[in-house]
Amino acid sequence: MSRGWGHLGEAQGDFNLLGDVENPSSLTSLACSINGFFPEWHLQVGGNPGSYGDGRRLARSGHFNADIPLEVLRPGENVITLTATYRDEAPFILTASVQLETGAYPLPALIDWSRVDRVQDAGQCVDGNWGIQDDGLRTLHSGYDRVFLIGERNWQDYEIDVGVTVHRVDDETGPYSGGNGLGILNRFQGHVVGGPRNFPPNQPKWGYQPFGSITWLRWMNGSAQAPDVQFYRGDGDGMLDHEPFDAVVNTTYHLKARSTTLPDTRSGEGCTLYQFKVWEQDGEEPDGWHFEETQVSTTALRKGGVVLLAHHVDATFGNVVIYDHTQNE
Prior knowledge:
By secondary structure, this protein is mainly beta. It has strands spanning 2-5, 14-20, 27-34, 41-42, 63-69, 76-86, 92-100, 109-111, 124-127, 130-133, 136-139, 146-150, 159-169, 180-188, 213-219, 228-233, 239-244, 252-262, 270-280, 291-297, 305-311, 313-323. It folds into 2 domains: 2-100, Immunoglobulins (Immunoglobulin-like, Sandwich); 109-328, Exo-inulinase, domain 1 (Jelly Rolls, Sandwich), CATH 2.60.120. The chain is 0% helix and 47% strand. Strands 8, 10, 11, 13, 18, 19, 20 and 22 form an 8-stranded antiparallel β-sheet that branches. Strand 18 (252-262) and strand 19 (270-280) form a beta hairpin. It is globular, with a radius of gyration of 20 Å. The N and C termini lie far apart (46 Å).
């Protein structure tokens, strides 16, 4: 198989190679090497705590997600070799070709899914199996933080407008998941080890902060209840729930999110205004925002791409419009 990376600029420091292995219960190891270089490094494979893989980025038993650092790739073609070793069987070897290219993702950006041939022509599948269908980009299986990343690390102030259709809200979530969620993650630059919350090493990394913020619908009281319109801080577990929104399965809604950089505080803390609204596709757009939250933080990111985020929700995201709203003010 062949993949391209870098033609849309640099959104994060890793290329993600996702897949699954057959007969994971008989697997003893899964190793990865780049361009024949050694030593190989070993990849974690989703086990089976319930049916949630590792409970985080590996959503099913047998899934893997190789975080491949940009610095180990060379310009042009790179060969990634995966070696799966099983009990009492010969190793199974698979190679993938990755083209490291250069490019940029300028604003404004318009994604019309009917004109997109390959998912990676519009962004990066950081987590989850995504596919283009008649109505847009759909999660082909639900799970923990299914992440589709659009843009570049240096994106800062932008507004995104995207339609989304809810097909199913999972009845149960994983051991580390909290409530289901669906919406926009603002200013994301990739998963981390360490950072202000001291996330431990892992392959794949599961440290998810800092980011800018998450503005979304959140089913904190179970899938059968109406979700809250929620603001999730980018530097910790602080969440602010606003009024519930009566999201109905197989109905399409508009999501609109905006980030605006404000002057730093006198003590040097960064300030950003986040605004969010949601409404039914066939209805009129509300004049005001569902919420406007000013985040003051020393660690939350103030630049980064935008994520279409589905957390234990099966959903289709429609056409996407993103622009720097400060250029029109």
